[in-house]
Amino acid sequence: MKKVEGSTITKKEIVQQDLGNELMLYDAQKDEVHILNGTAKIVWEGLVVGETEEQLEMRLRERFLIGKDRDLFLDIRNIIGEFKEKGLVKQ
After folding, report:
1. Per-residue b/e over 41-78, b at no fewer than 16 CB within 10 Å?
2. Residue pLDDT, tens place only, 21-61
3. Contact between 64 and 58 (Cβ < 8 Å)
């Protein structure tokens, strides 16, 4: 198992606030707020602790009761791509 590409969080200035099913990220350097939905929250939390794509997939399947017929790797990569675009994870 390999770590998720782009899994390094870029800034220590990101403040997190758990909102239950969502997560708020505040980037103090850019003075920007990001609200993550439940899926993106799980991916973010996994990146913070260095989980692999396989671990993220398993957590998402368990949390949202998603069947094996759905390919979650594309969803995970898209979420990470959005994090990269916003400068939250390294390119």
Report:
1. bbbbbbbeeebebeebbebbeeeeeeeeeeebeebbee
2. 999 999 988 999 999 999 999 999 999 898 999 999 999 99
3. no
Place of tokens 């505040």: 26
Handedness of CA 14, 77, 37, 84 (dihedral sign): positive
CA pair distance 60, 51, nearest whole angstrom: 12
Q: What is the pLDDT at residue 71? A: 92
Looking at the DSSP assignment, which residues form a beta bridge with residue 73?
A: none
CA distance 25 to 31: 10
Separation between Cα atoms, residue 36 and residue 70, nearest integer Å: 21
Q: How far is CA 52 from CA 36, 49, 65, 87, in A?
A: 20, 10, 19, 20
Helix (H, G, I), strand (E, B) or coil at 3: strand
